[in-house]
Amino acid sequence: MSGHIVAVVGGKGGVGKSVFAANLAIAYQLNFKQRPLVIDLDLSSLGDQNIILGQSPKKSIVDVSRMPPGPIDPKNLAPYLVNAPLYSLIGAPRDSISARDMDTEGLGRFLKGVSSVFALTVIDCGSSMEPWVLKALEFATAIFVVTTGDVIVVNQTKRVLGKIQELLFPPEMVQVVLNKYSQGSIVTPQIIQNNIGRPIFAAVPEDIKTADGCLAKSTPICVAAPNAPVARAYSDLIRKIYQIKLFDQLAKLKKPTGIAAQAVAAAQLVPAGSGGPNSRSKAGIVDPWTAMKMRVHKALVEQMDLKKLESDTSDPRQMAILREKTQKVVLDVLNQEDTATLLATREAKAQMVKEVLDEALALGPLEDLLADDAVTEIMVNARDQIYVEKAGKPGLSKVTFTSEQQMMNVIERIVTPLGRRVDEKVPYVDARLLDGSRVHVIIPPLALRGPTITIRKFPKERMTVDKLVGYGTMTQEIGDFLRCCVEGKLNVIVSGGTGSGKTTLLNVLSNFIPSSERIITVEDSAELQLAQEHVVRLETRPANIEGEGEVAIRDLIKCTLRMRPDRIVVGECRSGEAFDMLQAMNTGHSGSLTTLHANNPREALNRLESLVMMSGLNLPAKAIKELVASAVNLIIQQSRLSDGSRKIMYITEVTGMQGEVISLQDIFVFKQEGLDKKRKILGRFVPTGFIPKFVEDMEAKGLKISRGLFAAK
After folding, report:
1. Model pTM?
2. Which CATH class is domain 473-527+564-710?
C-alpha cells in the first residue's frame, strides 16, 4: 500500500486549521472505512489535537522522530500511537523544552515509511515554517492552506503561499481552503481569490455553536454532529478529493528535497558538534551547547524546588547560600553528562555552570548584558532577538533566551519582589531591578511575538554634573547656573523625549538640594538615587487581582503635603497629578522638580496644560495658564541627538502671562554646527543675552551669579 500525506498549514493562528485537520481525517474514515493517521506537528500549540480529539497520548511526535532506525510497521509504531475507533493519533509534546529535542532527519525517515502503514496521514503543521514543518512538506502529497475571510488572515495567507512558492513547491500541490465561511460575509471567496492569486478549492461553513460545543466535549464535529452543515462540508471535501483523483495526480509531481536541511544549516551559526556561550539558535534549531544547558536545567528543576528555596533574593547573603547549593547540584548533573566535546576545558565548564545558575536563579542571558557597563539599554523584542544600546546606538546582541517560558520565569523574578504581577488579565507592568534600573514588560496577547522586555539601565556610579559636562550634555557654566537655580528654590521642569536622559538630569539636579532640607520623592518605579540622608522615597502601587488597592502618583503627592516637605521631587507627571504638583509649587513648596514628555519648552507648557485638564476639575483654560505661569520658573529641554549623544537644547525661563499666552524666554540654547568625520554632532551652547528675572531674587538670597554668563556671544 502506498498512502498519501496531507500537510495542513494555517495562514495565521486562529483560523481553525487544527480542527480542520482532525475532521478531514475522520471524514475520510467515515466515507472510505480506512483508518487515517493524525499527526500534531504544531509544536508551539503544545497539544491542540489532544483537546480536539479528547486524547492524552503518552508519547509525542518528538519521541517518534528519535525512534531507532528500522522498518516503519504497525508493530514498531504501536507504542507511539493512540488508537481510537476512527483514527490513530501521534500528538505534539506538551512542553516547549521537549519540543526542542525534535530530530528533523528522524522525522523524515518516519514520514518516508508511514505511507506503507496508513492510506491517509493528515499532519497539523501550524502556521510557521519551522524545519520540521519543511520536512513534512517534502514528503506531503498535498499542502492544504487554511484561511478565513478576515482581512489580516488573508494577508498572512499570501505570506505563507509566497514562502511555499519560494521553496519551489509545485503550485498544483497547494490547495486553499476557506474556513468559517459565512454567506453574508463582505469578504467573498472571489475577493479572497483575487487577493491571494489562488483559487479556493473548498469552503467550510461557519458554525460557531456546533464547533464550540464539540470542543467543550473534546469530540470531533464529524463524530458529535454528523448531520450538521459543517460536518457535511468535510465529507463533501474528502469525496471531491478522491472523485477527481487529486492525490493520484499530485503524487506524480516533482517536489523539492533537502529544504529542511538547508534551513537547519542556515539557522546554525556554529559548526555541527560545537557550541558555546555565543551560539545562537534560530527557527527552533538548538545548538549542542544550548541543548545541554536545557537538559541540565531540566534535571536541576526536577531535583530542587527553587521557588521554595528562594526566600529573599534581595538579601545578598541568602542568595550566595542558595547559589552555592544550586551550583553543587548543577555540577552533579554535569558529571552525569557526556561533556568531553563541549566542556573540554575548565573555562567552558565554568561558563556552562554560570549560564545554568543565571537561568535558574537570576535573569538568565540578561545577566551578562546588565554587567556590561557599556550597555545602557536592553530591548528584548522576542526570545531570540535582543538588542542593546551602546554609546547611544542600538545593535543586535549575540545572546538569546532558550524559550519563552524562560523569559516568563525571568519576568516573574523581576516583578514578584515588588508586589506586582503580569498575566493575561494585566499583560503589562512597570518595575525596577535591585540597582534601580527601569523595566517595562508586555506579554501576549498584547505582544504578538511573545514576551517583550525593555530595561533602561541605571549607572552603577552616581551621575554627577561633572560627568554630564564631560559627556557634552552641558558646559560647566551651565552646570553652575543650574546649581544656583536649585539652591535658589526655583520650580524646575525637565522635559524631553523618550530616552533623552530626563531622569538622569533630574537625579543630578536633585543632588544640588542642600542636605539640611527634607526631600520627598514620588515615582512610579523608584529610580532616583539621592546623596542626601533626609530623604523619603514613595512609590506607586498597582491594583491587586481584584482591581483594588491602587495608589497613584496623585495620591502620593497629596500625602507629601502632610509630610512637611522642603522639596518635592516627582519622577514624571503624565496625568492629573500635574494639577496637584502645580498647586504644591504655588502653596509654599517652591523648589519642586519634575519631568514630562515634550519636544520643546513651548510644547512642555501645552502638555502641562493638557495634563491639568485630565484632573477632572473643568477649570477654564485661562485659569490653567495662570496656574502654570505662576508655578513654573524654569524649563530645561533635553534631547537625544542623531549620533546618540544627549544634550540640553534649551534652558528657558517662564516670565509670566501676556494676554492669553504664557511668555517664555530662552536663556541658553545649543546650536548645532555640523558633523565631524565620525558623524558626531558639532555645536556649542550659546547664551541668548537675556538676563532672567529671577537673578535679582537669587542674589538677594546670597547666591552670586555673574551677569557676564548671560552675555550673547
Report:
1. 0.54
2. alpha beta
